[in-house]
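Hello, quick one for you while I still have it in my head. My current little project is about how a certain protein chain folds up. You're getting the sequence in one-letter code plus the fold written as tokens. Would you mind checking whether the tokens look sensible for this chain? Here's the protein in full, and shout if anything looks odd to you:
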Amino acid sequence: MKTPSQMSEESMQRMEARIPELAGSAVKLAYLQALTTSGRVIEARDGQLIETTAEGKVRVIRSIAKPIAVTVGAKRVRARRA
């Protein structure tokens, strides 16, 4: 069995720098696949829940709460309803 080769720090940083690009491509591909498969995609955009169909029609389903900014490492707990 081959042992994994050592990766230089520079090489690792180059690969890590590509993560946002690869993630963006994956999201776009998933969006297009969802449109192809089910004919519609629902997404949150600018404080609204929006449905987009494969034909290009866009429908606002409803308004939603704005996202809450959370600092890295912070913990949030959902309050229980009485």
Summary: Helices lie at 9-17, 19-38. The longest helix spans residues 19-38. Residues 9-63 form one domain.
